[in-house]
């Protein structure tokens, strides 16, 4: 597996390398396709809010941070930080916790994704796929899925606000916030 340790990589990754890295994470963590769209939203917010560039030395960590948050916000059975450490063997739980904390700070804790924003990204991706003759799943965003997206996003945001009121510091990792977990993620 293409891990995280090679931070001194100078060469700019091609789209196949980025795709393989993301596919590995999505496949091993069994993430939903919707999670990919939320990941894209978070990546663009990061680039806007933090005014940073994705460079060869940091692209994997930035993508991992976006996927980590997106899976916790969107998926009912989110993958825990320790589970990502089993996928990417050269990263520690402490490093994952720090990555999550920094990513939240850089996003200014704005993890809410309204259905209108999700729909915009969804249809922009469909258009991009059509322009490049790439097949795209044909299941459209319906009202139920849009409402679920907004509800999940608000629930996570509310839990962050509640945890702040209950003595958790704003910079606490999401791992230290008591979230209800329905079942353990199974990774292959």
TrEMBL record:
Pfam families with a match to the protein in the record: Cyclin_N
InterPro entries: Cyclin-like_dom, Cyclin-like_sf, Cyclin_N
SUPFAM superfamilies named among the record's database cross-references: Cyclin-like
Keyword field contains tRNA-binding: no
Keywords, in A-Z order: Cyclin
Superkingdom classification of source: Eukaryota
Domain Cyclin-like: 20-105
Family per record: Belongs to the cyclin family.
Protein name in the entry: Cyclin-like domain-containing protein
Lineage: Eukaryota, Metazoa, Ecdysozoa, Arthropoda, Chelicerata
């Amino acid at each position: 597996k293409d891990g995280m340790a090679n931070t001194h990589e100078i060469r700019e990754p091609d789209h196949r390398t980025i795709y393989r890295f993301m596919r590995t994470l999505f496949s091993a963590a069994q993430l939903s396709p919707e999670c990919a769209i939320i990941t894209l939203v978070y990546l663009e917010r990061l680039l806007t809010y933090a005014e940073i560039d994705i460079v060869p030395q940091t692209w994997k960590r930035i993508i991992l941070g976006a996927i980590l948050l997106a899976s916790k916000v969107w998926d009912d059975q989110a993958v825990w930080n320790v589970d990502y450490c089993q996928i990417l063997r050269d990263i520690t739980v402490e490093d994952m916790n720090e990555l999550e904390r920094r990513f939240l700070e850089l996003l200014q804790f704005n993890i809410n994704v309204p259905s209108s924003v999700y729909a915009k990204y969804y249809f922009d991706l469909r258009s991009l796929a059509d322009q490049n003759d790439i097949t795209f799943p044909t299941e459209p965003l319906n009202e139920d899925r849009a409402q679920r997206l907004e509800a999940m996003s608000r629930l996570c945001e509310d839990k962050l606000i509640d945890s702040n009121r209950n003595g958790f510091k704003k910079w606490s990792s999401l791992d230290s916030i008591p979230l209800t977990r329905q079942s353990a993620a199974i990774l292959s």
